[in-house]
Amino acid sequence: MAVESIAKTLGTGSGIDITALVQSLVDNSFANKNQALTNKGTALTTQISTVGTIKSNISDFASALASLTSSGSLATQPTSSNTGILGITRLSGADLTGLSATMEVRQLAQGQVSSSPSFGGGSGSVVGPGKLTLTFGTATVADGAMTGFTAGTATPIDITIDSPNATLSDVAAAINAKKAGVTATILSDSNGARLVLKSGTGSSQAFTLSGTDGLAQLAVGPGAGGSTINAAAQDARVALDGVEAKYPTNSITTMIPGARIDLVSASVGTKVMIGASAPTSAISQAVANFVETYNQVFKAVQEATDPINGPLKSDPAAKQLLQQLKRLTLSALVPGASKNAPSALADIGVKTNRDGTLSLDTARLSKVLTTYPSDVEKMFTENAGLTKALSDVAAIATNSKTGLGASADKYAKAQDDLADEKTKIAADTQKMRDRMTQQFAAMDAKVAAYKSTQTFLKQQIDSWNAKS
């Protein structure tokens, strides 16, 4: 008889609910093991969740600080007294403390602009097939005409116009497709259409254009009477503290180390003051935000590693992170700092409380910022100082071999092992249930037989007593 069929008839002989009895005996046999596995599973789930939270906290903390320092907002910024003439921007990693100079923009850089004669048929005017040759160099210009030209070292560029009925628009498209350093547009008005050519900025970007057959009427250069030089190619002329220099563009990165100067307009004789603005307020706010965020991260790690109730109380990576955070305020952030100059967070008013959290002495920070502005700024340099120190802590903490990354893998494997254990116990439980069911079925059958014999004997005895 199958176990299921047996179970349905259990107790018919003895009168005992053997199915319930077997279930109770089996449950009690595995109760401690099942409870232990449940507790272990709950603990592992908490550990995995806690590790994930701490990893995210420390990584986000380090990333936020790195983003802040890379933005340049915690570094001395250059200033211009007249942004209508020139603007100035700090380049990444530059130290502009103490910057002070005067600048005069005497001339802006510009490219050569030329225009062809007007074609009454508009942009659809047929100008030929043929070949155009573009040559770059330097030129002299007077009254809209090119009076002299010296070719540069670059090889002249040929532009072939294959279409037998090439229009002015076709020529402009062919020039632009060549990407040779000159852009072409069509300017149309009531008199017709003209081909307008413009080069990049700088005196060396002057150009001539020669053409064969019908394209010759588009020629640009000395003796090309049909075309007009609307703007001559020229360099920017800028004087720094009275010393003039020339640049081919209006965006200059080599004049003041660590700064980009963007020329807006020329104003001969106007002196623009270039200075520096210390990020005092920005650093003060950054330090306050750092302390606040640190405390949140620290408390989370501290609670997780609590020796009594912490889910990560035995996790070496979590405990290592706690110790690294505690050492952060005393770590030297500016290697080789001069004597008495601040080089650690503790030097600028960041104090460690008895419970391990931080607090900020704003008066101390303000005084240090006033006395050692450049030294404090170095502590918040991009990819260095506090940014590097915190990034190093985060890298060690989240390491996949020795840090919390390894802890996460360990707990995940333990969960897999736990699932295997649960599967095995479930199988063992079913085996015991089947075995005990069969044993009690046999017992129940014997009880039924005994009852049958008992009934027969009772009937015989009752019969004998009745006859007597």
UniProtKB/TrEMBL annotation:
GO biological process per UniProt: bacterial-type flagellum-dependent cell motility; cell adhesion
GO cellular component annotations of the record: bacterial-type flagellum filament cap; bacterial-type flagellum hook; extracellular region
InterPro entries the record matches: FliD, FliD_C, FliD_N
Primary residence: secreted
Xref: Pfam families: FliD_C, FliD_N
Domain called Flagellar hook-associated protein 2 C-terminal: residue spans: 233-451
Organism domain of life: Bacteria
Compartment(s) where it occurs, according to its Swiss-Prot or TrEMBL record: Secreted; Bacterial flagellum
UniProt entry tagged with the keyword Zinc: no
The entry's keywords: Bacterial flagellum, Cell projection, Cilium, Coiled coil, Flagellum, Secreted
Record-annotated Flagellar hook-associated protein 2 N-terminal domain positions: 14-112
Assembly description: Homopentamer.
Role according to the record: Required for morphogenesis and for the elongation of the flagellar filament by facilitating polymerization of the flagellin monomers at the tip of growing filament. Forms a capping structure, which prevents flagellin subunits (transported through the central channel of the flagellum) from leaking out without polymerization at the distal end.
Similarity annotation: Belongs to the FliD family.
Protein name: Flagellar hook-associated protein 2
Organism: Sphingomonas leidyi
Organism phylogeny: Bacteria, Pseudomonadati, Pseudomonadota, Alphaproteobacteria, Sphingomonadales
